[in-house]
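quick one before i forget lol
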Amino acid sequence: MDFKTKMAADAERIVTEVNWLASLTVVGIVYVLTRMMYYLWFHPLSSYPGPLLAQVSRLWYLRCLIRGTIPFDVLKLHEKYGDIVRIAPDELAYNNPRAWKEIYGHRPSGHEIPKDPAFYHQESSGYLSIIGAPGERHGQLRRLLSHGFSEKSLREQEAIIQRYADKFISRLHESSNGGKNAVNMVQWFNFFTFDVIGDLAYGESFDCLASGQYHPWITLIFSSSRFFTYFRATSFYPSLKRILAYFIPKHIIKNRKQQIQIRIEKAMRRLKSQTDRKDFVHRMVRPESGVSTEEFIATTGTLITAGSETTATLLSGVTHLLVTHPQKLEILVREVRSSFSSEEEITFVSVNKLTYMLACLDEALRLYPPIPGAFPRRTRDPEVILGRPVSVGTTVAVWHWAMYRSEKNFSRPDEFIPERWTDSQEFEGDAKSALQPFQVGPRNCLGRNLAYLEMRLILARLLFNFDLELLPERQRRKEHLKRLEAAERERTNTQTEELERLRHEINELRIENENLRLYGSDHSSLSPAPQLTSSPPPPPPSVYSSSSSFNPFQTTFETQRAGTGTGQFVDFPSPIPSQSHSVVNPL
């Protein structure tokens, strides 16, 4: 073959390949456009409102998910479109209190809307854990655990929990050294909750309070939180999952593997231990329980994450809200210090009389839910939710942040007003049933009683011992954040330097104010606490967190003796969940 003939053949082959490529491109474009038209006009959910991009693809959802802003973005959609919003071609978000019962509650047929496997089975525990187990098996596992979380059983564990509370207060006094040293309160809240749940689930503490440091496993839990975000994003495209998995940072995958290994080791030690102690899992370790080794490992791992960081996050959130509202803090401090003459009087039973504290905790759960996102269900049969038909294969969910911050459900929704949970007539019109931080129905959280007991106990003892007030530098940082938000909303090329300067100053203030000083309180000259009558709390719901779903945020306190008239300062972050939060599912 001469040169010209070869060149002609090569040219013909190139033209053929280009034609094939062009044909495939056209076919691909036609396919995509056809699917978009179907989703927009012919899909069973086409009548539901939502952003155009969300109606025709998962791109809107994935963008918000990876950015970590999806709970806040869903609220904006509800404000624009109403109670039901289509946030993906096959997914609906609800913002009406009746949706709690219709999606998650007990149903006349006896069959629940199944949990969405694309969400729950992304964890290593999958269907083996109580959170992902199918209906019948979930009921069996729940019965084995429910006794350990009952109010009666928790009172039997009071001595153990009080021992850790003693250590918590003692270590704060010790670490603060009379106010000379700074203390990171978010860490100490986590130290307490992880030590308690480690003892009651594994039979061994993580020794965080003793060491003043996170156990390596806990550090891995926090550092692996982004893993779930990336992994969930890949789950929507199974055919591309292997390719997309390569883009997950290697250190995140490594941390996740280490976390699983430590969890297995701890669970196996508890499983093999010979003890008659009645902790949370004592019924599961019995030979006749029928619980497999894999189920035990998965479920105890769930107990650790669901029963620790969520409570610590709420304690951090309520403390922030109190110190940024001094009048509310003063009322609560009076209630605590006028109710007890000594710290020994603060018990599981006695904290129940702190009505204003319960109101503060409920309001903090509304404003700062440890889980701002949603727990999705996937319809297996045609359903009717809020009076509208929902087709098979639709993901449905209530988003906590959106439900609690909606003006339709709560007046002045962005304000911290504990009085709305008392008999105040001003808030009679609030939809109190909208607040369900512990979920509802047959899968509501087992840890509700434990969470409230821990929160009441620790908050009461903290306020009995210390005074708290916002650091002046924290106020400066809040003002910088407001300016940054305004600048980003009106971003232009000429503002780039200003944005970077603001970010730098905010970061410097965060580093500067990372900790808090603690001084022992003086209980003299206390006026009596106001008498408040609490309205009945919302129907029992359950625990979950930061991925968070929430990442621990930086916190700073400086406190001084009560009644001295001297400056008393505290610093806490803005009450907005971390954008990169881990997910701890309700049981």
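fyi The mean pLDDT is 79.
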